[in-house]
Design brief:
It contains 10 helices and no strands. The protein has 195 residues and is mainly α.
C-alpha cells in the first residue's frame, strides 16, 4: 500500500491540474508516480520538466528507456521496472532488448557501450575511469551524449528513490524477474561486474 497520498486527477487544482492534463494527453493516463509526486507541485513540475527536456536531447527514446531499465534494475525499483518495461515496448524495444538493458549488456556494440557506461556511472557514483569514457566515445557517443546519459541516470535515480520512499502502487503490468549477473557478482571475490 502506498505510503504517500496519490492526488486524484479529478480533484487536482492549479498547477497540478495542468500538469496532469498534459500527462493524460501524452500517456492516456496519469501514472501513480506522478500522482504521488504531486504532493509537491514543485517536485512534480521539476521531474516532468527534466524528463521532457531530455526527451528532446540527442539520445533516442529507446536509449533513454534502456538507461531507465538499467537504473531501475540496479536500484531494485519494481515500479520503475514495470513502467519502463511498458514504455520500452511502446518505443519499440523487444523483450530481449528490455532484458539486456536490465542486466547491462546488449547484442549491438553501440548499445552495449551505452548500457555498460550507464551501469558504471551508477556503480562508481559517477567516478568513471578515463578508459570507460574512452570506450563510450569509441562506440560513437559524443560528450553531449554522455552528458545526457548522466542526466538520465540522475532522473531515474530520483524516480527510483522516490518510489522506494513513497511505496508507489503499481499501475503498469509487473515486470518479469530478471537475474542480474551484476548483483550476483557483488558476492563473488574477484568477479568483474563490467564483463
Amino acid at each position: 500500500m502506498a505510503r504517500f497520498t496519490q492526488i486524484d486527477p479529478e480533484t487536482a487544482t492549479g498547477k497540478v491540474k495542468d500538469l496532469f492534463a498534459a500527462l493524460k494527453r501524452k500517456l492516456g493516463m496519469v501514472p501513480n508516480i506522478s500522482r504521488a509526486l504531486a504532493n509537491s507541485p514543485a517536485a512534480l513540475e521539476g521531474y516532468l520538466t527534466l524528463s521532457g527536456t531530455l526527451g528532446g536531447g540527442s539520445l533516442s527514446a529507446q536509449d533513454r528507456e534502456r538507461i531507465a531499465l538499467a537504473v531501475g534494475q540496479a536500484n531494485g525499483c519494481d515500479y520503475c521496472l514495470a513502467a519502463h518495461t511498458a514504455l520500452g515496448k511502446m518505443v519499440g524495444l523487444t523483450a530481449d532488448q528490455i532484458r539486456e538493458s536490465r542486466v547491462g549488456t546488449a547484442a549491438d556494440p553501440k548499445t552495449d557501450a551505452l548500457t555498460r557506461f550507464t551501469r558504471r556511472v551508477l556503480a562508481t557514483r559517477g567516478h568513471v575511469t578515463d578508459a570507460e569514457v574512452a570506450a563510450a566515445r569509441a562506440a560513437g557517443y559524443t560528450d553531449g551524449d554522455l552528458t545526457e546519459v548522466v542526466a538520465n541516470v540522475a532522473l531515474n535515480v530520483l524516480t527510483n528513490y522516490f518510489n522506494h520512499v513513497a511505496d508507489t502502487d503499481l499501475d503498469f503490468p509487473k515486470a518479469e524477474t530478471v537475474v542480474d549477473h551484476h548483483d550476483e557478482c557483488a558476492t563473488i571475490p574477484g568477479c568483474d561486474p563490467t564483463r
